[in-house]
Write a structure and sequence with these properties.
homodimer; alpha/beta; 9-stranded mixed β-sheet; 5-stranded mixed β-sheet; 11 helices; 14 strands
Chain lengths: ~300, ~300
């Protein structure tokens, strides 16, 4: 099925305890569409870049069968740039520099042939723009997944609430879930957030895994214990891309299939962090993904027969 | 099979965001033996208390079929006392007061009829005393599990290393694993710690679950997402008690059975934190435990068939 994704396509400069990069390709929609394209070959991208953006990367998107019709190129302007430095624990980072550039005036337009996409992934972006994309769709997608962050909770709470009310699945991290719900307990926070509109909530806990909630059920996927987390940038977006890419390809949005999608998303994220930027995702093979899924199975599988069942 | 446990039996005074207690019954061996006694009725306790310790609690141990022959009562002295206050996140706490009392001169003696116990649980205590207990055993137990903490890494590193080298399973928390191995990556830390002697390592991550490592395998058990964690005191000891109690009762120390034991231990810990002190453990029923195990199964169970397998 068709999957439309919107979000940033960017330059990142990253410093981790393991090294430092110059400008490399980043952005939420980059990670989402690359990750999703591993599962489904009908992915469309809506974003904006400047004249400084390498044609080579646009060709890489095309090679991965990502439709870049919706990727606006502002020749006279510069691509969005973010620079950050991670602490030892890799769970916290400082932003060193943010240059909005093309993003400052971004007015996303859904191409005509993507207005009836079956799946819609709203990468982290100003909530008003995310809502605008939903309104541009000619038919309501079967599933809308939305990612957001604490910055919008602090600066655009009303728009955020309106947008959240329109989506099916919200993905945020644990600190953001606590902030959005004003509840320390994640279980209580989840129920409060589900009452804001979404039928499903995914709470991303980084190295501590991810929780999938609906009103009655909860599913937990661990993060794979890795020898090294080299660069966590894009892990959340890669997770989301794997999640919705798997759902779009299997055409099944039951809770049981969402569990599988969470595991595939977690597997994709576990690759993402092994190298700087999108490098690991670009070179990924089916065998590698299958082996990693098997590692997840081995990691959590146990066999208890309850006497009374 | 017979299970001998050693550790503190204490008075605790606890403050959490949910309330405050006066002196209540606590101590590692209290939680361990109570939790283990749910699974196996052949538990012996080696510890020390003062003349101020309530006979009622000793009778409660006896009701749970815990053999208190090894519980020394120093009539002229006072029971070990610890007082602490938890922060909002419940993962960190400040010690307000520690009164060693009887513990200052504790010289544990294994009763004659417990010297050939099949399973030995060394609760957190001065490593020299833990090692002394191992030496008092007339036959080497089938399995020795040891808990310890950062305090001994800082003050008794040599004794700790000697004791760790003699045990089969070491249980510590994630910060302690990093400290003991001097490695930030838990995967690397685990391999380093396993090279110090133990065949198995359990890294307890509190609300983020627990990891079981041997040289070739890793298993992860989540913590159950709870609405409220009321009082985390004793959760790690309750986990250890459930773990070794289940192993002792099933007489099976394979990795597959250790996975089950980790899940049972996690289930017991999830009850422990629901009320202050040992209250919840004392009143626990088989149905409640079965239902909770089912919740763990629902929480992590997924069904992915890999095409190439």
């Amino acid at each position: 099925m068709s999957l439309l994704t919107i979000g940033t396509v960017a330059f990142d400069a990253i410093e981790t305890p393991f090294g430092k990069t110059d400008k490399i390709i980043g952005g939420a929609a980059t990670y989402i569409s690359l990750s999703a394209s591993f599962f489904t070959k009908n992915v469309g991208l809506v974003s904006v870049v400047g004249g400084d953006f390498p044609e080579q990367t646009i060709n890489m998107f095309k090679d991965k069968k990502i439709d870049v019709t919706g990727l606006e190129i502002q020749k006279e302007n510069k691509t969005f740039f973010w620079s950050g430095k991670y602490h030892t624990d890799m769970n916290t980072r400082d932003t060193i520099d943010t240059q909005l550039n093309v993003l400052a005036t971004f007015n996303p337009i859904v191409p005509q042939n993507w207005k009836n996409a079956d799946f819609l992934m709203l990468g982290n972006l100003m909530p008003k723009l995310q809502l605008d994309i939903i309104k541009q769709m000619s038919t309501r997608p079967k599933l809308i997944v939305m990612d957001t962050m604490n910055f919008w909770m602090e600066t655009a709470a009303d728009d955020l609430a309106k947008t959240i009310a329109e989506v099916d699945v919200l993905t945020i991290n644990d600190a953001e879930a606590r902030q959005l719900a004003n509840e320390y307990s994640l279980v209580k926070a989840a129920q409060k957030i589900l009452s804001m509109g979404p039928k499903y909530l995914i709470i991303k806990k980084g190295e501590h895994g991810a929780l999938l909630f609906n009103k009655d059920q909860v599913f937990f996927a661990p993060a794979l214990p890795l020898e090294e987390v080299f660069d966590p940038t894009g892990a959340g977006d890669t997770f989301a891309g794997g999640f919705i890419g798997y759902l779009a390809e299997t055409r099944d949005i039951s809770f049981d299939n969402m569990k599988r999608a969470v595991i595939f998303g977690s597997a994709m994220a576990s690759f993402c962090v092994e190298k700087f930027g999108t490098q690991r995702l670009e070179e990924l093979t089916q065998d590698e993904v299958d082996n990693r899924i098997q590692e997840f199975i081995n990691l959590v599988q146990f066999d208890i027969s309850l006497v009374n069942e």
